[in-house]
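ok so i was messing around last nite and threw this chain in just to see what happens. nothing serious, just curious
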Amino acid sequence: MTDITPSDLTWADLKNIMDNSFDEIFVVNAEGTVVYVNEACERHYGLKPSNVIGKSINYLINEGYYWPPIAPVVLRKKKRLTLEQETNIGRKLLVTATPVFNRNNQISFIVMNSRDITQIEELKESLQKTSKLVEQYESEVSELRQKMPFEGYTSHSKAMKLCLETARKIARIDSTILILGESGTGKNVLTKTIHYLSSRRNGPFLSINCAAIPDHLIESELFGYCRGAFTGADKGGKKGLAELASGGTLFLDEIGDIPYATQAKLLQLIQEHQFIPLGGNCPKLVDLRIIAATNRNLAQLVQEQKFREDLYYRLNVFEIEIPPLRERQEDIVPLLYYFLNMFDSKYKTSHQFSPHALDILSGYAWPGNVREMEHLVERLVVTISEITIEPAHLPPKILSPLQPSSNRENLFSETLSRGLKADEERLIIQTYQELKSSYKVANSLKISQSKVSRIVRKYNAGLK
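result:
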């Protein structure tokens, strides 16, 4: 066996060694810029090394990729530190940051080693010790907490960031809100977040799905009834959700399906903060905030005289529209890992996605949005005994020819239809065979990842 000395190792050898380390190796320079991170970062943040290297640690902190930060403290303290971090996709890391000094005793680099301790029960005692350090440094970076993502959301796309920032601002104003978005985009989650960011956070949060309650029952569910109001109400009255939610927030989901006859009473509740229960004659005053949501076009329903115009404008004081997942390409991989980690923790399992599976899932149109993704990942975690989730484990509807998933693909398709056809497809295939990743090909050619996946699958170039 030939002896190998350190001088025989090339940078490619060293990089290959570090990339195959199970622990994350994360290096920043004295200016706080990431100069190296190995491939473990994809399991921890849902990001490839190429998406992290070159970024500043302030950018990563502000974008909410992990919390709390450790590198800024090491730069100031100039000594090794260890603490626990939680990432944007729910991984818990035990991070040791070591400063590397030059001849002038100045920090040249900080080398951070991060071990995934999400499922390691034996380290609980160590985590209790590191929590003291977290508390010590919490005050030094408390202002950054306001920039962390909302609980239950992983958002890196500009459209979703704008949506969440708007919600954050509106939460402080005690006014009616209308949330729009396709089914499964997370309207209920956003509403709960607004409630807990508001001054009503200590009050009740109650919700009703207007589409799930029969028309003849929805008024009694909302406003309650008095004894003798109708057959079966002789045993006593019942408080409605409007009264029970007083002091807090009432969420009216699928508001577009509320009966027209009930809309006048709801308008009175919003305008005057009072209502009369069924069978009663005395109004009841309540103090609540109303948030409504729908996936229907209320303006169109107003034109069709199926929804009151005055109620529409009362609900639509502030409007937030949640973008569908197909328009949030940057969020797909982080969300996949967020749900994977969540369900692995719930079911005491351990899984990871293969690169090919991630490519296919990234190219899928997700017609059911985030809810569809959550249910799919839970099903994969429960049913797959292997550690790695491969394309063969995915449902047939996802493995079928991919649908366009972004405006970028539509634009590119239009360009192809004007003459860029066979040559462009050959270029995509050649680039994929070199880079082995539809994500890298999309970045290299400035086209959508779903287009790359569709062309690759069409020619079976590398997807077996």
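not much to say yet. Residues 332-459 form a domain with the Helicase, Ruva Protein; domain 3 fold (CATH 1.10.8.60).
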